[in-house]
Amino acid sequence: MRRNEERAAHLQHYTCGRRYRIEYHGFPSSREASMKVAMTYDAPGKKSFKVLSETGSKLLIDRVLSRLMESEREAALDAERTALTPANYNFELQGMESGARGSEYILGVQPRVDSKFLYRGKIWVDAVDFAVTRIEAEPARDPSFWIRKTEIHHQYLKVGEFWLPEQNRTETRTRLGGTADLTIDYFDYKVAGVR
Fold first, then answer.
1. Could you give phi then psi for residue 60, rounded to 5 degrees?
2. DSSP track, 145-181
3. Phi then psi for 58, rounded to 5 degrees?
4. pLDDT tens for residues 91-137?
5. Distance between CA atoms of residues 77 and 117, nearest Å
6. Counting runs of H as helices and runs of E as strands, what totals does the chain give?
7. What SS3 state is found at 86?
8. Four-residue CA torsion sign, 158, 159, 161, 165
9. Sheet of strand 31-42, all strands in order from the earlier edge strand to the far edge
10. Do residues 83 and 58 lie in contact, with contact meaning Cβ atoms separated by under 8 Å?
């Protein structure tokens, strides 16, 4: 927590590109959509998005991708409600792992409240920087009755002294038997305004 607070205090501004891609297979038909977006972050919690291009299903663009950006903007404004802290989560050390990026602690995380912005599962924490490098989880609360199960896979990369998202993948199964796969790739980070 202390290292996250230190990094957050130093990170004043950054920009990056994002590629959103969603594929839905199931009732009533298969659809897909993609979007290229420029994102700007300004401390202490303001995110803005500029859509550069979009292709595919207008329904998926409007009801999934655009709403996803709006939810992220909303969550950024109230970071305390979504932060990875003991106020929001219970933690359990489950082990340690060594890989290409070095040693990492593996922690089980359980949300203290059912919130659409929190999750339950495992996180990997860099043993030197004490930053989250990976998340394998499911939402604390399903966002809709129509959703049966959602799996979240997040990867982070180190940009300068900061660990920022590299890729988010979400696999969702609906009650009607369909599946939706959402991938967000992050690229071209430019970090500025470091304190």
1. -70, -35
2. TTEEEEEEEEEEEEETTEEEEEEEEEEEEETTS-EEE
3. -65, -35
4. 999 999 997 788 999 999 999 988 878 999 999 999 999 999 999 99
5. 12
6. 4, 10
7. coil
8. negative
9. 46-56, 31-42, 13-25, 179-192, 162-174, 147-159, 132-139, 119-126, 102-111, 89-99
10. no
Angle, CA of 81, 36 and 161, to the nearest 5°: 55
Q: Is the pLDDT of residue 39 over 90?
A: yes
Which of 122, 195, 118, 185 minimizes the C-alpha distance to 157?
185
The residues near 91 (Cβ < 8 Å, ≥ 6 apart) are: 107, 108, 109
Measure CA of the first residue to CA of the last residue in the chain; give whole Å. Answer: 19
pLDDT band at 143 (very low <50, low <70, confident <90, very high): low
DSSP 42: E
Distance CA(81)–CA(71), nearest Å, equals 13
Name the pTM for this structure: 0.90
- How far, in Å, CA of 184 to CA of 166, rounded? 8
List residues bridging with 128 in a β-sheet.
none
Both tokens assigned to 72 = 């992220």
The string over 145-166, giving b where at least 16 C-beta atoms fall within 10 Å of a residue's C-beta and e elsewhere, is eeeeebebebebeebeebbbbb
